[in-house]
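Just wondering, can you check both lines?
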Amino acid sequence: MKRERQVQGILRTVHHFLVIFLLVSFVTTCCMLLFLSALSQAMGLVWTHENVSAAAKLTFGNVVLLSLLFTVLDYLRRKWTVERPIRLITEAAERIMQGDFTVRIPPVSRFDSDGRFREIIECFNKMAQELGGVETFRTDFIANVSHEMKTPLAVIQNYGTLLQAPGLSEPQRMEYAKGVANGARRLADMMTNILKLNRLENQQLYPQVTEYDLGEQLCECLLQYETVWEASDIEIETDIAENIRVKADAELLSLVWNNLFSNAFKFTESGGKVSVTLSAAGSQAVVQVRDTGCGMTPKVGAHIFEKFYQGDSSHSVQGNGLGLALVKRVVDIIGGEIRVESVVGQGSTFTVLIQRA
């Protein structure tokens, strides 16, 4: 490959020399003919064969030397201003193809080439940076999915093995079967959330905007968790203003409320309290979901909207770290805002702001 490039470089140099030689020859010949014609007319000179032959030979030698000089200068110009940036871009592209997304092309001097190469290099470096981010995300995503799948699969495997033991009592059989079902449900929930998140991030879900009463939707979503708060003896406090309407995709927003309610009940101990409020603040509807659970540190709060991030590992068996990533993406799509305030040992408050209708 390298030898082939060298041969191509030599052929290009010869081609440039011939082009320059013909161009210089034509221009010089025309200039000399005009000069000799004007000189002979002005001075009444008569050119002999010997004079013309000597002048032609001298002119030919000058043309050859000038062509060589111009070819060398053009070669150096092209090598520094064209071939060097092309070589840098080509080498960087080959490293990209080999999977090295850390490669960056150093900027060329404004005297080395025209602005187009600098623009290409800037775009190439941005592309390499974006590809590096995508590759990092892909690697992390695969690692996280693999890690998250291990736990429910191990649970299913262990309970499946226990179910094969002879002489099981009915309560034991039901307990083990319930463990298998819970592991399968967690796997199914994780796959569902991954697909939803993928469709949201790739903009394959298009919001179906309708106008509706936000308070009614909050009450409907909250009532779905009635058995949960009764079983855990959690106190419910609501302060939902009436006649607050929004224009949004009701199905997407229900994902937000269901995930926030689910987290609130998951992290609130028995005897605790979960509060849901809805109020109007100017042109915005403000929804707050507050719990008296374990709370979290500022460091954890800064990452809770990232995929697969779980700040409290003691509750990891109840989720897969995708819920709040879904919430953040949905809120971004509808043009809203979400904030979180939390104190360790006192609980967390999630605030969602949505434009009113």
